[in-house]
Amino acid sequence: MRSFSVSSWRVRWIGLGLAIGGASVPHYASAHHSFAMYDSTRPITIEGVVKEVQWTNPHVWIEVMVPNAAGGQDQWSIECTSVNFMTRRGFSKRTIKPGDKISLTLSPLKDGSHGGAFRSVNSLNGAPLALEPQD
Amino acid sequence: MRFLRPLGFVATGFILAMSPLIARAATQPVKPVVSATYADPGQPDISGLWVVTGAMYFAPDRTVPKLQGEYQALYERRTQAFKAGVAVDDMTADCLPAGLPHLLIVPYPFEIVQTPGRVLFLYEYDSAVRRVPLGVAVPAHPDEDTATYNGDSYGHWDGDTLVIETVNIRGDTQLDFSGVPHSDALHVTERLRRKDATTLEDQITLTDPKAYAEPFTVTRLYRTRPKWKISEYVCEENNRNKTDEQGHTRSGVSRAKPE
């Protein structure tokens, strides 16, 4: 198990994907570039405060400041899918805003740097996120 | 809307039969009873908005063509790099087109428009367009100097199935994001039919005498999304995943959004 320079309650491995051999891990509807750099078999959760949302194509980015073990903060870059896909999942440009307290699950970068591919929002400002995906 | 078409024919017949009596009414614009993207009653109707189902691998079961020679070696190199977290030769990272046949499995919707003599595929991804003329013979010796990302497509109907032959495809694109190669000798044959009211089936056969030891056939399904609309997709807007000097796609966490 890899370790991060952040306290364990803020970044924790989710064992479920490993336990069942990654069978339940969704394949990302990215379709701009290969997601070779992300490890989709080892999802992790981060908690922090949103610094910036880049609501852009080819991909939406969420920049999150996450407290680290040294008492400082690390900036995590979360690569989402496209504006088109996020919109169909029920997100809008204003769903997540700078200053929001967020907990999200991501597929981490294989090289261990502070970033990952977006999977889901666990909570936003302490509440679950209610989205209405387009059917 | 397909079930309404017979009503349309009946209504048209009625109007023609009664035309001396309702001449004024017949001159009024007739509201179309078929979809706006279907304008050739001579063709089976495969029009509408579709999106692929299943995995983003070219073959959902992750099988790959029987690669030979340098193409096998190339694929092994890419697979090793992928495991190490690096995508190699992935042109899409620089916002270049996925190309055919990758375009057939990108998870973005596309619209099929049928007009007399031609079928148009309007893709959300990259705003790509494929124009497929009907009844035009595939050139025996395609001009390799004019090879393109999506090649040149030629179609004809075989009963309820639209057969599309595509040639003149560049050799440097990949089948999917796992890096499966093909050569510039690739010939793509599609057999496209409406399987049921909400499902389109495309049986895709790749023939590539340079790269593949034998033809490779995959069947992909697409489902209708009547409430969706095609949106804009401009890859160059904020691309943080450009390849480096070695042609590698890495983390993409440059963070800065170009002003």
Describe the structure in brief.
The complex is a heterodimer of chains A (135) and B (259). With 135 residues, chain A is mainly beta. Chain A has helices spanning 16-19, 83-88, and strands at 12-13, 44-54, 61-67, 73-79, 101-108, 115-124.
| Percentage of β-strand residues of chain A | 25-35%
What is the second-level CATH architecture of chain A?
Answer: Beta Barrel
CATH fold node name of chain A: OB fold (Dihydrolipoamide Acetyltransferase, E2P)
Query: How many structurally independent domains of chain A?
Result: 1
Helical residues, percent of chain A: under 10%
CATH topological fold name of the largest domain in chain B: Lipocalin
Largest sheet of chain A: 5 strands, mixed, barrel
What structural class do the secondary elements of chain A suggest?
A: mainly beta
Largest interface: A-B, 38 and 41 residues
Extended strand count of chain A: 6
In quaternary terms, these chains amount to heterodimer
Structural class given helices, strands, pairing of chain B? alpha+beta
Model description:
The complex is a heterodimer of chains A (135) and B (259). Chain A is mainly β and 135 residues long. Chain A has two helices and six strands, in the order βαβββαββ. Chain A has a five-stranded mixed barrel. Chain A starts with 11 loop residues before the first strand and ends in an 11-residue tail after the last strand. The model of chain A is unreliable at 1-29 (pLDDT under 50). Chain B folds into two domains: 1-34, no CATH class; 48-248, Calycin beta-barrel core domain (Lipocalin), CATH 2.40.128. Chain B has helices at residues 5-17, 23-26, 70-83, and strands at residues 48-52, 87-88, 110-115, 118-123, 129-133, 152-158, 161-167, 187-196, 199-207, 216-224, 248-249.
